[in-house]
Each structure stands twice: as C-alpha cells, then as structure tokens.
Amino acid sequence: MHGLVAVDWHVIWQQVFHPHAILWHVLWATVYISIASQALGVLLGLLAALARMSRFAPFRWISAIYVWIFRGTPLLVQIFYVYFAFSWPSLNFGIWTVSDAALAGIVALSINEGAYMREIIRAGIDSVDRGQMEAAKSVGMTYGKAMRRIILPQAARVIVPPLGNEFNNMMKNTSLLFTIGVFELFAYSEQNYSQFFIADYFLAIAVWYLLLTTVWAFIQAWIERRLAVSERGDELSFGERLELAWNPMSAWTRGVYRR
Amino acid sequence: MTDVILHAEDVHKSFGRLEVLKGVSLEVTKGETVCIIGPSGSGKTTFIRCINHLEKIDGGRIEVNGQLIGYRQKGDKLVEDSERNIARQRTQIGMVFQRFNLFPHKTALENVIEAPVHVLGEKKEQAIGLGKSLLTRVGLGDKFDTYPGKLSGGQQQRVAIARALAMGPALMLFDEPTSALDPEVIGEVLSVMEELAHAGTTMIVVTHEMGFARKAADRVLMMDDGLIIEEGTPEHFFDEPTHERTKQFLSKIL
Q: Which of B20, B46, B116, B154 could form a disulfide with B127 if both were Cys (CB 3.0 to 4.6 A apart)?
C-alpha cells in the first residue's frame, strides 16, 4: 500500500534493520569521504588562516582570493569542474578502493570546506588573548611552537563547536557526489528507487543519515566537554553538554548560558 | 666588564610618528635590582619590552650577557636576527607581565615546566622537580595542579614569576607586575620579588610601588618623555631628588 502520503514501513524496516550487505559498503563510503574531506578541509583552512595573518602580502591575497572563489560559487559546480577538468586515478588499498570519482569528490569537498574553515579557524585564533603569544615568546618559543603549543589549543575551544557543525554538513553534502557517480548512501537509495519506484527508499536512507549525524552529535559533545574541562571552574557536566547538543533550546530554559 | 648583564645604548623607538624612546642608555650589573618609575607614557614599559625584543628598536643597541639582542651586526649596521636566534636569546631573559598571561589551558605546574621541557629540552621529571620547588618558593606549594582560572590575581602573578624563573634567566624583567592586582594581594607578590632581589636576582622592575622601590632597589631610575632623567640610590632618590620633574612626580604619587 504505497499511495501519495502513506509510508511503506516494510521498506524502511528492511533498509534500517535488515540492510543488504551493499549498505555497509555505501555507509563506509559516506563516512570515509566525509572524514577525509573534513580533515583535509581543516588543514587547508589552517594554512589559509595562517596565510591570512602572514606579514607577507601575497600570501594574504592568495588566501582572500581562495575564500572569495570557493565560498562564492556553488559546491555542485566545483565538484563537476574538479571531476571533469582533470583525470583522476583510482586508488587501491588492497580490499578497499577509492574510485576516481570519490577521489575527485574528496578533493572538491576539501577545497570548498577549507574556505569555510579558514574563517572559523581565524576567529578561533583571534579569540586568544594577544598576551598569550607574547608570554610564549618571552619564554623562548618561536612563532610556530607558540602556535602549536599555546595558541591553537586555546583556539580549539572556539573552533570545535562550529567545526562540529561543519562536519555534520559535510556528511550530508557528500550526497552531492552521487552526481559524478560516487556510490555512497544516497546513490544507493536512488538506485533502489529507479528499480522499484518506491520513494520510501529515500526515507530509509534519510534515517541512515540521521543516525550518522546523531552519533556525531554525541562525539562532538564529548570532545567539547574534554576541551572545556581544562580551564573553567564552572564547566558543564557531560549530561548538560549532551542535552545542549541535542536540544539547544534547553540551554535557555536551564539557564546554562546565564551563569 | 664581566658582570655587566644588561648594556643598553642610546635606544630609540617610535610608534609611527610618536617617538617613545629618545635615546635610553642603561647598564645593569649582576645581582642588581633596578626600579624604573615615571608617569604613564614616559616609555618605561616600552623600554623593558625592547630588552627582550617584544618591540623592535629603531636605533641604538641592547646587549644581554654580552649578546646583542634581536639584531646581528652586519658591517656597521644592525639587521634583525632570525626568529630562532631571537627565541634563543629570550630564554635567558625572564619576563613578568602586568596581566600575568599565564597559559589558561595548563595547570600552575604545567605553566612552569612548559618552556624548560619544550624549549630547553629538559627531561620532564627534572623540570617537574624544579617547577615544584619554584612554586613552593613563591608560596604556592599547594597549587601545583590548579588551573589559572581558579587562582587569585596574586597567585597567578606568583605562578608567572615561577614560570619565568624556571628558565634560569640571567635577567628578570617585571612590567608593572602589581598594577592589575587587587590591593590586598599586592603585598604577597611584592614580598616574593623582594625575596628574589635579596637573593641576588638581576632584575629590572617597572613599578609604581614606591615602597618596594625604596626597600628592594639598588638603584631607581626616573623616566620622563622617553628619557632617563634621573637615577640614584633609593635614599638619594626619595629624600633629595634633584630634577624638577622627579620632585613633581614624587609629590603627586607619595
């Protein structure tokens, strides 16, 4: 009974609780593409943020142009361009192969992500008091060492919450790679749909995305709590952070932000 | 010549068009405590920030332990030294800031051992031993594992002093170390500094604490408008200042 609005629970039940072996394959694809793209995106964002703060003007210009272009054009266009403009190899790691399309997808997603991460990382670094760099230098640290050991660990507390949101977006944005032929979660549901014409396959895959983002929300709350422990006397308990991650509105009703 | 720790010669510094240091010269010998006083804007903070090259200088030269700071001699000109060399030079100059600038993500002990371990490459156990004894020396033997956020201003400043001492510096610089403190905790910081002074630490202290200058200083300098205008022993300085500006300043502050 699949009409216009009725939900075919059987399909969803099957897809979620008794998935075909292929599902693990596409789930893994979504996960590793997300992690790789986010990691590279953070790295690019860090480089761009440091370039942005450089005393050498051309570095600042390159950083500005990079952000201007990649935040100002559609991600989908970037993905298509990166994939079709270059010839990509596929990488073979024994039992695990990264297809040419997946590789191009990771590159496109990372470059795009780096442009967003630059602003987040720069805001984090800016949030650290200037006196910290001076104190680090006064005990003999070079700029690089002061960044690594003193500035970035403190900036991390400001960077991590928006970074977590970026990763949440990233996991969902990987679905765009279906358009260049990457076989990931969404591509799998699309394949099922075009075979059986049952829209509930999309609903089922939405449940899987929801599962991923939910697991991530837990991990994020845990990381944020660890970062908060070190310097605040009034840090939140794990339970409070989980609740914040789940339900931002509860922050207001519980008065967490009012302390 | 051997026990000259600081040799500053005709130091000039401008911020844009504003000339903050107009030729400051100073020699400090081993074990000496020198207090610099003067109205705000006189250039005293800028001067000690130049000593460890937190500020570049526009003219003159600064040597610590016979080593040119921040610059390399190239013919008869000075060119700025490499970052690595400057960093190495700073290891022998301890600095205590007005606003403490402790590393908030590290405990008191971690603040103290950070640079010995990660800059000097000392063994961690050894640095911990030294760090604990230094924290005990400044009266914080019970605060090793406390984060700066849970310490009072006076306690934080004492950790900052221990952090600077941990490098075994030849010279300690204090930039108005009590100006950001509540009145009731100023005393505990000053008494630590007095103890250091009596123990023979070479130190330059920018301060408004005339009581400290009188008790602990071997020499007091008055800076005004980018120049050292008067210097002498505390007795001379507070009892019979000669310069008109010094008299005015002291009458306002005492």
A: B116
Phi, psi of B27 (to 5 degrees): -125, 130
Given a cut of 90, is residue A167 above it in pLDDT? Answer: yes
Question: How close are the terminal C-alpha atoms of chain A, in Å?
Answer: 54
Q: Cβ separation of A140 and B120 shorter than 8 Å?
A: yes
* Contact residues, chain B, for A141 at CB < 8 Å: 87, 115, 118-119
pTM: 0.83
Tokens of A62: 């390159």
As for how many domains chain A has, the answer is 1
Question: What ipTM goes with this model?
Answer: 0.93
Residue of A nearest to B113 (CA): A139
In this prediction, residues B87-93 reach a mean pLDDT of 96
Give, to the nearest 10 degrees, the angle between helix A200-229 and helix A152-173: 180
pLDDT, tens digit (0-9, with 9 covering 90-100), for B161-174: 999 999 999 999 99
Pairwise CB contact (< 8 Å): A139 & B105: no
CB contact under 8 A, A141 and B102: no
- Range of the structural domain that residue A107 is part of: 24-184
- Whichever domain contains A43, its CATH number is 1.10.3720.10
Does some domain include residue A245? no
